[in-house]
Amino acid sequence: MRSEIGKEVRKTFNRKLAERFPQFLEQETFGALRGGLLYGWQGCPQVNCFIYLQMSQKMYQDCFMVELSCSSGEFPIHKVAFDPADVAGGAVRFRLPELYRNEWGVRARRVPWWWIGPEVRPQEVTGHAAARIGREGQLKSSPDLQIPIAEALRDVEPQVDDAISRIERFGIPFFRDFTEKRLPS
C-alpha cells in the first residue's frame, strides 16, 4: 500500500474503532504485525479478544484486511489466520470476511480485502510492466494502474466504515459467543 494511503487508513480506522468499540485498546505491534494496528480487549478472565488491521505490503495494492483472534494470553501470532472454527489450544485467528462467507464465497476463492480504489492483481502488474518495456527494450510511458493519491484518499473513509460495520455485525457477536463458551458453568 502506498504510504500516504496507509497512513490515512490507520488514522481513520484508529479513530472509528475507538469511537465505536472503546473497550478495544491499541496494543504494541511486533514482528510480522508491524505496519498494521493491533487492538485487544479482555472479553472475560479466560479470553483476550483481538482486532488486527493488516495493510497490504505490496506498493501496487492499496488494500487492507481485518483479522480477528481470541486466546487465553497474547495475540496468537504463530497461528495461521484460517477459519473461525479452527480453535486449537484455546486460540483462534481468522480474517473477518470468513464470518460472512455466504456473501462472497460463491463468487471467489480468495478472501476479499477492502480496496482503496480499483483492485490491482499481480498479473495486471506483470502485463503493465511488459507493455511499458516494448519490443525494443525501451521504457515507454503508460497510465498508472493505481488511481491518484488525492482520489484514493476519498475512498478511505467509506472502506473503513464498511470494515467497522462488519466488525459490529459479525465480529462482536463472534467474540461474545467465543467468550461465553469459555466461562465456567
Describe it for me?
The protein has 185 residues and is α+β, with helices and mostly antiparallel strands. The protein has one domain. 37% of the residues lie in helices and 19% in strands. It has four helices and six strands; from the N terminus they run H-E-E-E-E-E-H-E-H-H. Strand 2 and strand 3 form a beta hairpin. Helix 1 packs across helix 4. The N and C termini lie far apart (46 Å).
Q: Span between N and C termini?
A: 46 Å
Computed structural class: alpha+beta
What is the averaged pLDDT score? 87
| Poorly predicted regions | 128-132, 139-143
The DSSP helix count reads 4
Number of strands: 6
SSE order, one letter for each helix or strand: HEEEEEHEHH
The portion of residues forming beta strands comes to: 15-25%
Q: What's the alpha carbon Rg, rounded to whole Å?
A: 19 Å
Overall 3D shape: globular
Outline the biggest β-sheet. 6 strands, antiparallel
Helix content: 25-40%
The count of domains is 1
